[in-house]
Design a protein that fits this description.
Radius of gyration: 37 Å
Number of strands: 10
Oligomer: single chain
Strand content: 5-15%
Number of helices: 23
Largest sheet: 6 strands, mixed
Amino acid sequence: MRILDFVFRSSRWMFHYGTKPLTKNEKEGLSIAVRQMLRHPGQLSLMLVTGLVAAVFEGGTIGLLGLAVKILTDESVLLVQNLPSFLNDQLVLYLLNISQGGLFLLLIGLAVAAQILKGLLGYVSTVAQTGLSYRLMKDGQDGATNHVMNLSYRQVSQYPSGQLGSLIDQSGVISDIVTEVGKASRAILMTVSYVSVMILISPLLTTAAIVVFGLLWVALSRIVKILKQLSTRAVESEIATWRWSIEYLNVPRLLRLFGTTDIAKGVIQDARHKRIAAEKKSAVINAAILPVFEIITVFGAGVFLICGYLFSGESAIKVVPGLFVFVLVFFRLKPQVKMLNDLRIQMAKLLPKLGKVGEFLRTDDKEFEKIGGVQFRKLTSSIQVRGVSYRYDGADVNAVSSLDFDLARGETIALVGESGSGKSTIVNLLLALHQPSVGEILIDGNNLNTIDSITWRERIGIVDQEVYLLNTSIKDNISFGRQQISDLDIETAARTALAHEFIESFEDGYHTVVGDRGYKLSGGEQQRIALARALVSNPDILILDEATSSLDSISEKYIQKAIEGMHDSRTILVIAHRLSTVTKADKILVLAAGKIVESGTKDELLTEDGIFSKLWATQYR
């Protein structure tokens, strides 16, 4: 934590004049990036150390060139006297015997060698930076994907699917931090190296140069703040573009049926145009920074030369070459200072993205899937629902209240009621996708919260009211999530679901690709594929949520017969609006406003003048 605090304090100091204090989400995003970098100390150290040594060689190159020029113009320079004492006498004697021209050539040769080494080390530092950057991009996006998969169903369902895709993509932005750290570390080290050489040449001129760059730094801070605001706008627009593109492009039939293609196009384009406008304005502002740097640095260099010439008097001939070396270093310093300012600009652009990533990847305000617990093998006794109530986030009333019922092994129970009465909520509670707000669900006497959710759901076959088929083969759709299922098991499940016959009628049989969301199949065929998928793993418990709603009456009767044949071997929960599908249920639970208001067999309920008898009369009148 000390390292992270140091990073935050340093960042705050560096960006004080251009950015407001970091938000909690921005700090979280930045800390994630730092933690990811520290997980790869080898590459990080290689990037920083080679950058440091390259900076030393760069400074040495400039120093050697300056000294070489000074030797040609000032015979009083005594190089040997300034040598460190640890050098041996032979080296000192050798240097004393070299002529002025020879010493000049030697220093130039050393400068060239130092520059070659600097170039090689700079390349190694950049390669290490690139490798670390791409590794962090992979780690960031993989981590975001894992984060999504580990979120609870209640939590993840709060995000539009397009927004989730965008946030996973945005998580790769932590790799950009590596790039900026690499560039900044090299720029800082080079700056220190150049400033050291400049101080040796002229402390007074160095002070003036630092003042010039300092004033420029402060003057550009307003631009940095504007760029951060534009970046925030661009990031929000980019997420909106992802969201609406995926939302609308996934429902082409709905758009055309309701004539809303122009509306969808307008929403997507509006979000995209806002992003483009913000990025365009940012690019225009950013383009002005380089000319400003060029004008100020050239002007400053001219002032240094003129002032140095005017104040040197008769010794101008000897002073001017040194001034040229100073100006050379000054010009070499300019791109490093610009790179540091570019870092501020890039961070101003990255911080909004890091804020979104930090907000998304925070764990202190998220609910996750329960991991671990008692391994579930098989239902041996019953499922007991005791006093269960559940309320959705933001709702004023419970979706279901005070539920009490038992589902014994081998029993078939039906849930009927108007839309919104709580039937689907009960299914989600039994699947452990939601946790009861009040009460408990017992599986063979064990609280469902203590049972491993993965092994529990493996023993449940479910057919949802809305069928989801992948754009792959029928075989892959039936065996989805059950990779070890044999072809015989797939065919057996298809026969039970009355799907085998129409599957075999296709040219490619079970290898027929069903198209996006199964558009090549009729609604009834899609539902029978979904039923086969639910049966293929031979589950203990079968949940049918309107499983026959898209079937014709003949197919429905065959499905009913198949379900009746599983009566004693499986525990079945049926949700239905069409009451013909529940006539053979052992018990029918009638729901209204989230409560069980009637319970009994079909014959028992028809003798009462209640909701079920009225529904029956309405459907069979």
